[in-house]
Every structure is written in structure tokens, then in C-alpha cells.
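In this section we walk through a basic example: taking a raw amino acid sequence and producing a predicted 3D structure, encoded as C-alpha cells. The instruction is simple. Fold the sequence below.
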Amino acid sequence: MRRLLAIIVVSAAIVGCNSQPLQPLTPQATTEQTSTKAADATGWQLVWQDEFNGEAIDSSKWSFEQNCWGGGNDEQQCYTNRPENAFVKAGVLHIVARKEPFTGPALNQDDPKFSLQHTKTQPYTSARLRTKGKGDWLYGRFEIRAKLPAGQGTWPAIWMLPTDWHYGAWPLSGEIDIMEAVNLGVQSDEPRALADEMERRIHGTLHYGKRPPANVYTGQSYKLPDGNSPADGFYTYAIEWQPGEIRWYVDDVLYATQRSGDWFTAASETMPDISEHAPFDQRFHLLLNLAVGGNWAGNVNATGVDASAFPQSMLIDFVRVYQRP
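The resulting C-alpha cell sequence is shown next.
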């Protein structure tokens, strides 16, 4: 999610021409039982889940971030815990970005300088949920079935951050982006895009290395086949994270793999006997959010934020975590 002053090491577009067509699904079309059996067949066992079948967001599994910080990317939203920005309905979590001025804390609540007296006003509101302290894992298969928003300035993200920051501040301890997308449905600015081709890429990325501006990220993008868009239906975004390797999937189609030879952390310069898999060998937690604008979404495609496109919603059908014994 964070791309502040990043240096791109790898960025390849994968179109999946040789895979079976991926069809958008309606909520609950893939049952929990079917998913569990499929995972068991490969040795993964379900250890944590949220099917969003209740009447409210489960506070034993999720916490709200509440700030107008801008995510370190000059984003234009305040994250709130209001039902206007996040709620559960008919078995689906809704994260809603709205065009409305809002004032809140200017810093992330994890910042040592955080203060309720230091405020900032932003032109949009949204929500950012995390499992920190309630769901933290070292390795596993993480599946999230979602339907993404569209419009210039939208930036939905399903991602992971370190719980303990064992190797130091971002990005020394790493970041795992399971899925990100920006400006879906807007004229694509991809070099190979057709004149009338709309943006429909999703991205899987790792952040690591040294402190900014020497931080780096590596990843790949992927297009659904047959011209399908992630904003048109529900798709299952997943990673399989094992010692020394992370794999990215959309509806079980593998589109990217990174290994410990691809990443590093500057902490290795000061920490003796550091693992060859660092920094992706520590506990991470999940985050779900919908950002508005910022240094990525606001600088590509049509650029800026199209206020007329809002409100926009990111819909989450389920979140499931599997591990091997």
C-alpha cells in the first residue's frame, strides 16, 4: 500500500492468456465447505475466518484505524469508524469512500507523536480495518474474496504489515500487498493499452530494503482474461506465504512468485545471524482499506480524483486464513 519515494525494481504485466477464463462470481457462490476441502487437498488447514454473516463488524477480529494522516502517500481521506464508512450487510463487508469534509487526527495512531489535539481536515472519508493483535500470522494461505470500486482516484488495497516491526521501521520489516488496484474503469495508461482500453489491472507487491528514499518494491500486475474487470464482480485474491517464497493468485490462477533471493532488509547490516528469509519471516497482520487519491492513484490514468465518481464501495465477501501443520 505504501509507495512513498519507492524505486521500482520489477514491474511486469501478466495477462494470463493460457489460463482458464475467470468468471465474476456472486457473493457466497463459493461455499466455505468447498473452499476448505480445496485447501485441505493441498495441505492447508483453515485457522481463521470472517464470513461477515453477522449484523455488525466483529470487533474481536477487526480494529478501525482512525486518522486523517494520508497513509504516507498524500491520500485525501480520513479513516473513521462510522457506519457510513464501514458496515456489514447480507453477508458482505462494505468499505465506503465518500466525498465529504472531515476532521480527525493528523497522525497515524501508531506514531509516537500521535495526539488528538493535532488535527487535519480531508475532503473524503473512508475506512481502514486491521487484524493487528487479533489475527497475526507467520506464513499461511490468505484468501480474500472481493469486488472492487471503480473511478479515478480509487485505491482499494488488501495487504499485510508486520505486527512487531522486528527489523525496524517501514520498510525494513517488510510489507506484503496481496492485491491493490487504482482507477479501475478509467482510460488505461499502460504503454500497450488500446486507445479505448479501460484500466483493469490488479497488482501484487512486496516492499522492503532501506529507509526512504532508498526503499524498493518488486511485484507484478495481472489482467483478468476476456476483458473482465475486478470492479464488475467478485474474485478471490490470495497469497501463499511459506519460508523463502510468496505466491500470488486470482481465483487460484498463479500469476506471480517471489523468493528470498529477490528481497532483503537493511537490518542485515546491523543484526548478526539474520535469517536469509528476512524480513518476511516474522508475524504479519491483515489490512483492508479504500484510499482516495494519493501519490499513485492521483498521478496515473486521468490523474487527480474525480469527485463525481463517489461514493464508491469495496465489497468483501470473506477473509480466510489457512496454515499447514
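Looking at the output, two observations stand out. Residues 260 and 276 are 7 Å apart (CA to CA). The chain has one domain: 7-323. In the next section we compare this with other chains.
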